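Re: your question about Transcription termination/antitermination protein NusG

S., sorry for the slow reply, the queue was backed up all week. Below is exactly what I fed in.
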Amino acid sequence: MAESAEKLWYVLHTYSGYENKVKANLESRVTSMNMEDYIFQVIVPEEEEHEKTDGKDKVKMEKIFPGYVLVEMVMTDESWFVVRNTPGVTGFVGSHGGGSKPNPLMPDEVASILHSQGMATTHSTLSFEVGETITIIAGAFAGMKGKITANDPDKQKLKATINMFEREVSADLDYDQVDKL
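Result:
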């Protein structure tokens, strides 16, 4: 298989219950083996579970895909080797064994998973400033203008106020939902 020069998302199979340990091991290996230009993000998709015990509401994080970890990487022989030989990784999903490279996740699958984790699906090259006026290009407020009240460049999210029916409404937006005026 030809080596890909683009960042794509792959799924790792791990021992169930070791997902966070694999994430920590892999992040450590990326640094120690100088693979920062090939292996970018490692996530263990989780969601909040609410349960009542003894009349108290408890919130705990449940893994959405037990036994699996997602990794964003450029697939090369070296990056494949580093990930594949990380302690706790049993293999890549979509690999046919015998050293074959796996198939990446489809973009719509990645977008759905990242969105469920509150992460931006695309990294905008735009930067935004609090107080700046923006145009909303996607979502419920598409076509409207807003003024930025808060900005989180790491998560690629911002808050904006929008004038709607002569009232100010606050909206939480992803960078990929807005454009500069």
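The two ends are 44 Å apart (CA to CA). The longest strand covers residues 7-14.

Happy to talk it through on Thursday.
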